[in-house]
Amino acid sequence: MQLEDFLLTLPKQWFNDELVNAYVELLRVRQMKFASSVRPKPRYIFFNSFFFDKLTENGRFNHDAVRRWTRKEVVLKARKIFVPVNVTDAHWFLAVVIPAAGRVELHDSFGGAQEHMGKNLARWAEKEASLHGLPKKDWSVVTMPCRIQENNDHCGVFMCRHMELMSKGEAVVGWGGSSSYHRRRIAAELLSGSL
Protein backbone atom coordinates (compact mmCIF):
# COMPACT_ATOMS: atom_id res chain seq x y z
CA MET A 1 0.00 0.00 0.00
CA GLN A 2 1.33 3.42 -0.96
CA LEU A 3 0.98 6.70 0.94
CA GLU A 4 -1.65 7.90 -1.54
CA ASP A 5 -3.74 4.82 -0.69
CA PHE A 6 -3.30 5.29 3.05
CA LEU A 7 -4.42 8.94 2.79
CA LEU A 8 -7.84 7.64 1.71
CA THR A 9 -8.50 6.92 5.40
CA LEU A 10 -8.88 10.70 5.83
CA PRO A 11 -12.44 12.12 6.03
CA LYS A 12 -14.48 12.48 2.82
CA GLN A 13 -12.30 10.06 0.86
CA TRP A 14 -13.41 6.86 -0.85
CA PHE A 15 -11.52 3.67 -0.05
CA ASN A 16 -9.82 2.06 -3.04
CA ASP A 17 -8.91 -1.57 -3.77
CA GLU A 18 -5.39 -1.26 -2.34
CA LEU A 19 -6.63 0.08 1.00
CA VAL A 20 -9.39 -2.52 1.27
CA ASN A 21 -7.03 -5.33 0.30
CA ALA A 22 -4.46 -4.23 2.89
CA TYR A 23 -7.22 -4.45 5.51
CA VAL A 24 -8.34 -7.83 4.19
CA GLU A 25 -4.75 -9.03 4.64
CA LEU A 26 -4.81 -7.93 8.30
CA LEU A 27 -8.00 -9.93 8.78
CA ARG A 28 -6.50 -12.97 7.06
CA VAL A 29 -3.36 -12.84 9.20
CA ARG A 30 -5.40 -12.46 12.39
CA GLN A 31 -7.52 -15.44 11.34
CA MET A 32 -4.43 -17.58 10.79
CA LYS A 33 -3.06 -16.67 14.24
CA PHE A 34 -6.45 -17.25 15.85
CA ALA A 35 -7.00 -20.57 14.10
CA SER A 36 -3.65 -21.89 15.30
CA SER A 37 -4.50 -21.15 18.94
CA VAL A 38 -8.17 -22.15 19.27
CA ARG A 39 -9.98 -25.50 19.07
CA PRO A 40 -12.20 -26.15 17.23
CA LYS A 41 -10.84 -23.80 14.65
CA PRO A 42 -13.34 -21.45 13.04
CA ARG A 43 -12.25 -21.24 9.44
CA TYR A 44 -12.86 -18.12 7.44
CA ILE A 45 -11.68 -17.28 3.95
CA PHE A 46 -11.00 -13.66 3.00
CA PHE A 47 -10.87 -12.94 -0.71
CA ASN A 48 -9.51 -9.62 -1.85
CA SER A 49 -11.53 -7.14 -3.89
CA PHE A 50 -10.27 -8.47 -7.21
CA PHE A 51 -12.00 -11.84 -6.75
CA PHE A 52 -15.49 -10.60 -7.58
CA ASP A 53 -14.18 -8.33 -10.35
CA LYS A 54 -12.53 -11.32 -12.03
CA LEU A 55 -15.55 -13.57 -11.47
CA THR A 56 -17.78 -11.09 -13.31
CA GLU A 57 -15.31 -9.45 -15.68
CA ASN A 58 -16.96 -7.61 -18.58
CA GLY A 59 -20.35 -8.22 -16.99
CA ARG A 60 -20.19 -11.98 -17.57
CA PHE A 61 -19.91 -14.80 -15.07
CA ASN A 62 -16.57 -16.54 -15.55
CA HIS A 63 -15.70 -19.26 -13.02
CA ASP A 64 -12.50 -20.12 -14.92
CA ALA A 65 -11.13 -16.63 -14.23
CA VAL A 66 -11.05 -17.34 -10.47
CA ARG A 67 -10.43 -21.09 -10.55
CA ARG A 68 -6.76 -20.71 -9.63
CA TRP A 69 -7.78 -18.88 -6.42
CA THR A 70 -9.35 -22.06 -5.05
CA ARG A 71 -7.46 -24.80 -6.87
CA LYS A 72 -5.42 -25.91 -3.84
CA GLU A 73 -8.17 -26.03 -1.23
CA VAL A 74 -11.86 -26.70 -0.84
CA VAL A 75 -12.97 -23.25 0.29
CA LEU A 76 -16.57 -24.38 0.72
CA LYS A 77 -15.48 -26.23 3.85
CA ALA A 78 -14.93 -22.85 5.54
CA ARG A 79 -17.50 -21.46 7.94
CA LYS A 80 -17.68 -18.15 6.07
CA ILE A 81 -16.14 -16.68 2.94
CA PHE A 82 -15.82 -12.88 2.91
CA VAL A 83 -15.95 -11.14 -0.47
CA PRO A 84 -15.57 -7.34 -0.67
CA VAL A 85 -17.45 -6.02 -3.70
CA ASN A 86 -16.76 -2.70 -5.39
CA VAL A 87 -19.65 -1.57 -7.58
CA THR A 88 -18.35 0.49 -10.52
CA ASP A 89 -15.65 2.08 -8.33
CA ALA A 90 -18.41 4.05 -6.59
CA HIS A 91 -19.74 1.86 -3.77
CA TRP A 92 -18.50 -0.97 -1.52
CA PHE A 93 -20.57 -3.71 0.04
CA LEU A 94 -19.75 -7.02 1.65
CA ALA A 95 -20.89 -10.41 0.41
CA VAL A 96 -20.54 -13.33 2.80
CA VAL A 97 -20.84 -16.89 1.50
CA ILE A 98 -22.02 -19.31 4.20
CA PRO A 99 -21.47 -22.76 2.70
CA ALA A 100 -23.14 -24.86 5.41
CA ALA A 101 -26.37 -22.87 5.02
CA GLY A 102 -26.18 -22.60 1.22
CA ARG A 103 -26.57 -18.85 1.56
CA VAL A 104 -24.99 -15.68 0.26
CA GLU A 105 -25.53 -12.70 2.55
CA LEU A 106 -25.28 -9.15 1.22
CA HIS A 107 -24.34 -6.45 3.74
CA ASP A 108 -24.86 -3.05 2.15
CA SER A 109 -24.59 0.17 4.18
CA PHE A 110 -26.87 1.86 1.63
CA GLY A 111 -29.42 -0.90 2.09
CA GLY A 112 -29.72 -1.75 -1.60
CA ALA A 113 -27.23 -4.48 -2.50
CA GLN A 114 -27.81 -5.78 -5.97
CA GLU A 115 -29.15 -9.31 -5.73
CA HIS A 116 -27.74 -10.34 -9.12
CA MET A 117 -24.25 -9.91 -7.67
CA GLY A 118 -25.13 -12.32 -4.89
CA LYS A 119 -26.53 -14.73 -7.45
CA ASN A 120 -23.17 -14.74 -9.23
CA LEU A 121 -21.51 -15.78 -5.97
CA ALA A 122 -24.14 -18.48 -5.45
CA ARG A 123 -23.43 -19.73 -8.97
CA TRP A 124 -19.69 -19.72 -8.17
CA ALA A 125 -20.37 -21.77 -5.00
CA GLU A 126 -22.41 -24.29 -6.99
CA LYS A 127 -19.53 -24.71 -9.47
CA GLU A 128 -17.02 -25.09 -6.63
CA ALA A 129 -19.19 -27.73 -4.96
CA SER A 130 -19.53 -29.62 -8.23
CA LEU A 131 -15.77 -29.56 -8.86
CA HIS A 132 -15.02 -30.93 -5.39
CA GLY A 133 -17.80 -33.52 -5.25
CA LEU A 134 -19.71 -31.72 -2.49
CA PRO A 135 -23.50 -32.11 -2.13
CA LYS A 136 -25.66 -29.94 -4.34
CA LYS A 137 -27.60 -27.17 -2.55
CA ASP A 138 -30.32 -24.70 -3.40
CA TRP A 139 -28.40 -21.50 -2.76
CA SER A 140 -30.24 -18.42 -1.54
CA VAL A 141 -29.25 -14.76 -1.61
CA VAL A 142 -30.33 -12.62 1.34
CA THR A 143 -29.93 -8.90 1.91
CA MET A 144 -29.04 -8.55 5.57
CA PRO A 145 -29.90 -5.69 7.91
CA CYS A 146 -26.88 -3.61 8.78
CA ARG A 147 -25.97 -0.16 9.99
CA ILE A 148 -26.69 2.50 7.37
CA GLN A 149 -23.94 4.95 6.51
CA GLU A 150 -24.41 8.66 7.22
CA ASN A 151 -23.11 9.98 3.89
CA ASN A 152 -21.81 8.96 0.48
CA ASP A 153 -18.15 8.38 1.36
CA HIS A 154 -18.19 5.83 4.19
CA CYS A 155 -19.20 2.61 2.42
CA GLY A 156 -15.61 1.30 2.44
CA VAL A 157 -15.35 2.01 6.17
CA PHE A 158 -18.59 0.15 6.83
CA MET A 159 -17.59 -2.79 4.67
CA CYS A 160 -14.21 -3.18 6.43
CA ARG A 161 -15.80 -2.90 9.88
CA HIS A 162 -18.47 -5.46 8.94
CA MET A 163 -15.78 -7.94 7.92
CA GLU A 164 -13.84 -7.29 11.11
CA LEU A 165 -16.86 -7.65 13.41
CA MET A 166 -18.31 -10.70 11.65
CA SER A 167 -14.97 -12.50 11.71
CA LYS A 168 -15.00 -12.07 15.50
CA GLY A 169 -18.62 -13.26 15.77
CA GLU A 170 -19.97 -9.84 16.74
CA ALA A 171 -23.20 -8.16 15.63
CA VAL A 172 -23.02 -5.84 12.64
CA VAL A 173 -26.29 -3.97 13.14
CA GLY A 174 -25.77 -2.03 16.34
CA TRP A 175 -22.07 -1.20 16.45
CA GLY A 176 -21.43 2.28 17.74
CA GLY A 177 -19.04 5.11 17.12
CA SER A 178 -18.91 7.69 14.41
CA SER A 179 -17.66 6.90 10.95
CA SER A 180 -14.77 9.30 11.60
CA TYR A 181 -13.75 7.22 14.61
CA HIS A 182 -13.82 4.03 12.54
CA ARG A 183 -11.77 5.66 9.78
CA ARG A 184 -9.13 6.59 12.37
CA ARG A 185 -9.26 3.10 13.83
CA ILE A 186 -8.75 1.48 10.42
CA ALA A 187 -5.84 3.88 9.78
CA ALA A 188 -4.25 2.95 13.13
CA GLU A 189 -4.69 -0.76 12.45
CA LEU A 190 -3.11 -0.44 9.02
CA LEU A 191 -0.20 1.58 10.43
CA SER A 192 0.42 -0.90 13.23
CA GLY A 193 0.00 -3.89 10.93
CA SER A 194 -2.38 -5.62 13.35
CA LEU A 195 -5.97 -5.64 14.56
Automatic annotation (TrEMBL):
<comment type="similarity">
    <text>Belongs to the peptidase C48 family.</text>
</comment>
<dbReference type="InterPro" id="IPR003653">
    <property type="entry name" value="Peptidase_C48_C"/>
</dbReference>
<keyword id="KW-0645">Protease</keyword>
<dbReference type="InterPro" id="IPR038765">
    <property type="entry name" value="Papain-like_cys_pep_sf"/>
</dbReference>
<dbReference type="GO" id="GO:0016926">
    <property type="term" value="P:protein desumoylation"/>
</dbReference>
<dbReference type="Pfam" id="PF02902">
    <property type="entry name" value="Peptidase_C48"/>
</dbReference>
<keyword id="KW-0378">Hydrolase</keyword>
<dbReference type="GO" id="GO:0016929">
    <property type="term" value="F:deSUMOylase activity"/>
</dbReference>
<dbReference type="GO" id="GO:0006508">
    <property type="term" value="P:proteolysis"/>
</dbReference>
<feature type="domain" description="Ubiquitin-like protease family profile">
    <location>
        <begin position="1"/>
        <end position="166"/>
    </location>
</feature>
<protein>
    <recommendedName>
        <fullName>Ubiquitin-like protease family profile domain-containing protein</fullName>
    </recommendedName>
</protein>
<keyword id="KW-0788">Thiol protease</keyword>
<dbReference type="GO" id="GO:0005634">
    <property type="term" value="C:nucleus"/>
</dbReference>
